[in-house]
Amino acid sequence: SAPINTTIGFVRAASSSSSSSLSIQYELYGDTSKTFYLNSSTGELVLLNSLDYETITMYKLTIEARISSTIAPCFSEINIHVLNTNDNPPDINLMFYPSVLFEGNLIKYDLNANSTLLATINLKDLDESTTNLSLSINDTEHFQIQFVRQIKNGLITESIYILSTKNNSQLIQQDYYYLSLNSCDNDQPALWTNRSYEFHLKPNENLCYFNQTNFILDIKENLSNRTLILNKITNEFCQNMFYSIDDQDNFYIDSQLGDLYTSTIFNREERSIYKLNIKAIDQYNKEIKTQLIIRILDEAGHIPFLIQKKLKMNRKEFSSIDLFNSTYCHYQTIIYDYFQLLSNCTLVKLTLPVQGKYLFYIQLNQKYNYEDTFLLELTTNHTEIFIYAFLQSQWMIIIPIGLGIFIILIFIICAAMIIRKRRYNKLHHNKQKSSLSSSSLSHSDDNVHNKYDAISTLSKLKVHDDHELSPSPISAAIYLVQKSASSSPTRDDEGYSGSSDASENPLPSDTTIIAVNQLVEQYHIHEFRTRESIASSTYEVPKRINTSRVSPDVSLV
Is Methyltransferase given among the entry's keywords (predicted)? Predict the structure, then answer.
């Protein structure tokens, strides 16, 4: 505990009488930490830095004394021993348990217990002389400490205490607390250390929990929908909770009360074990979880144990399947003539089974009343199904008969078309001959009428003596039309007299025709085409004709 700049002592070196007039110089070696200072002229040794007995207890230094470079120097060692004093106060380390320490400085305690363990307190003193560390607290009404043990490890003395609450039922009266820890090393001189803590104490929400961590509930298969199967499974400390489940298709839970109901009609052959995860959240968004296993019992009360209840696969791909991890399955030699059930709950194939559904009853020998069902559905590929269904159905006979009838009808239709084509070609040939004779006659008539300028302006003259359109039995309807330049090729119906069975295409506008009595009348001009016409023919509307230039023997209608 010597202060800095304390003079430790003086170093003296003596010289012979011949060199007594020369001054002696001193130099210090071995002080790597620069703890000491040696005056080179006077030999005074001074303390530069503080000493710590617990770090270094003795310093070994070397001092050199010399007069000149021509005279050999002399050396001496000096040992400086550090004496121990009680200079280190105790160190306090408080470690709260994670189970009670929440966010910030919030501490949770168990309201249902008298005391809750909060933290471990470690006291440590580095002085060798210290042998008895003590600890005290300010609030003994709400807190208490318990001494565990004290350890002496070389120079270090360590003591361990446990901090806990006291009278938990009274802690709810307030939530803010101040705790002061005071430790003394009980040495000479006595040194003290104080640590103060401020925190909030609240009842632990973990007081709200499910009555069990895992539940197993057995219910009958024939229960109706919305049947109450389980009441609230949390304790009385759970208030204002919101309950939810992960399987809402088969079950329903009241989100406020926590009561559990069924929401479907169960089929034990489809599924017999349900794992339901239940979650409850309080108003502080703190949640607790548990898992509920629900087993569906049959009418005889058999307990199920199979998770996988059915399998569908191709009958040629199936060889075996492990139904349950157990060696207590009831051995069954032959089932449905195709399968065998081993004692390790493995279902194996003996021969190739046929397509269909197979229901197996699995029992456990050393488990009383444990029996479950397994459904195996074996299928075939689409090609096999189609061939098998075709061979077994009446279409095997109907399809060939239908194909034969269809081929016969095709032959009949083709023969009729050939015969009709031949008849048509023959009639067409005769019609062409008639058309040629009519054309020559028309040519001679045109020469007679060339003196009439109005008639000569018409390139074609067609006569249709339809009595239905005639105004009187003695007169005939005459149609004057002029074929356009883009008309179709020469038609074989020109000069045709009588009714025509050819198609009629009315012109898009009315045509003005001048009658004999100088009256203008409106008529539609029709085009008559033969069956051989390919391109559509268009006729121009005839121009108005000056009746004074028309022969009075011509009656224009």
Answer: no
Query: pTM for the complete prediction?
Result: 0.39
What is the CATH classification number for the domain harbouring 75?
A: 2.60.40.60
Q: 3-class SS at 91?
A: strand
CA nearest to 92, candidates 129, 138, 56, 124 = 124
Using the Cα atoms of residue 480, residue 485, residue 487 and residue 490 in order, give the sign of their dihedral: positive
List of residues 6+ apart from 427 with CB closer than 8 A: none
- 224 found inside a domain: yes
Total count of domains within the chain? 4
* Domain around 244: 216-297
- Banded pLDDT at 84 (limits 50, 70, 90): confident
Q: Which of 54, 21, 58, 26 is nearest to 41 (CA)?
A: 26
220 and 199 together in one domain: no
Q: Which residue has the higher pLDDT, 58 or 22?
A: 58
Non-local (6+) Cβ contacts of 54 within 8 A are 88, 126, 127, 128, 155
Does residue 41 register a pLDDT over 60? Answer: yes
Max CA pair span of the chain? 190
